[in-house]
Amino acid sequence: MNYSRYSYINPNAIDLFGTLNRNRALTQSEVSYLFAKRGIIFGKDTPRDLLAREFSSYFHSSYDYLLIEAALAIDRKKTSASGFSLDGVKSLTNRQIVTKLDQLEDSLKRSIQKDQDEVNIDTVTYKRNGISSRQIDLKYSVYDFTKNAFNRRDRREASIFIKPLDHSESIYIEFPNIKEINYIVETQILPSLMNNFPGSQKTKVELKGITNLEHRKFFFNKLIRGIEDFEYDTVIDIFVTKSEDPEDNEKKSPITSVASIRKASFSGQGLMDVPELDNLLTKGFHIYRVIWQSESSEGETFVFEAKFSNPDECLGFAYLLKGRKSDDKIEQCSLTETLRLNREIYFSAVRSLKATKELGESHE
Questions:
Q1: Which residues are within 8 A (CB) of 56 and not within 5 positions of it... i.e. 6 or more apart?
Q2: What is the distance between the alpha carbons of residues 47 and 55, in angstroms, rounded to a whole number?
Q3: Is 327 left (phi over 0), alpha (psi -120 to 50) or beta?
Q4: pLDDT tier for residue 14 given thresholds of 50, 70 and 90
Q5: Is the pLDDT of residue 345 over 60?
């Protein structure tokens, strides 16, 4: 879908009136500026609906529209990461790997800038971070034409990191756990990498084929204890869900019972070991998300998160270093530290998945 840069703004008087009158994200001082640039000053007690009605009756320039849109822009929360490794990259040093990646720069940028459904790629920047990694920065826009003219374009930014792993035959790719970025990675970046590194294979983390609910608990239990150079402390939040079964719908009682609950969550300490969790597992629930804290070798406490974006089937593994804990507050870590520890979560998950599959084989 190809949109010109500013075609999304085509507001009518109703859009303008509604935005100025009801949207308090547009502050009084910003409304004052819109009038002041026309040489108009109004009293501080002037009703907002009167100002909105007056301003919407004027002729407007694209600069007016852009000022309003900029004032309504929202800061996005930190998102979890998704990632995978490309294994089987043989007989290549890190320098040779990044050199082959650099040869893909132009083709990757052209491929990413192709029209995406409901997405407009504004800029693509390819960065060389020495011989340690490569980074693709995206600025893009997502559209929702059911919204008010000033809210229908959502500007976003994302970074995709590609890093050869030391003493390994693997390349690690990490990106934000966002639908449109996942699509770009799967359809444009991954095929290019696999063509450029023949024989390589994608390693993904999922529990779809593991139906034993205790084994799914084992996966998370091993994951949270497997972060290298960290000592597991406690699980502070845990989330469970129960996949819908047609037979359950037929048996469902009009009286609320555990059989009618689809999702539940706990907050506290040591939640992996509470009897309430085991009781829910016997009822057909499984864990799909955990938040835990661990202590580093330097004695600092860090908070981590791991989850499946598709809870019912345990697909779409995502993870996040939430931050460093200090005085009961979570402080954000540096980008370098976040990337390093996000990788450790992923590889702990890979090791845990392998152990979980072996556990299943031993029970067969």
A1: 13, 14, 16, 17, 20
A2: 13
A3: left
A4: confident
A5: yes
Number of helices followed by number of strands (H, E) in the chain: 12, 12
Rounded distance between C-alpha atoms, residue 72 and residue 67, angstroms: 9
E strand residue ranges, 257-342: 263-267, 286-296, 301-310, 315-326, 329-331
Say which residues have a Cβ less than 8 Å from residue 35's Cβ, sequence separation at least 6: 41, 42, 51, 55
Question: Which region, left, alpha or beta, applies to residue 91 given φ > 0 means left and ψ of -120 to 50 means alpha?
Answer: left
Say what the pLDDT of residue 196 is.
Answer: 92
pTM: 0.80
The three-class DSSP label of residue 345 is helix
Which two structure tokens, joined as six digits, stand for 275? 């009897």
Mean of pLDDT over the chain: 86
**Per the structure block, which two tokens stand in for 93?**
């040093």
Q: How confident is the model at residue 246 (pLDDT cuts 50, 70, 90)?
A: low
Q: What's the rounded mean pLDDT across residues 272-286?
A: 91
Q: Strands of 105-195 (E only): list them.
A: 119-129, 133-143, 153-164, 170-176
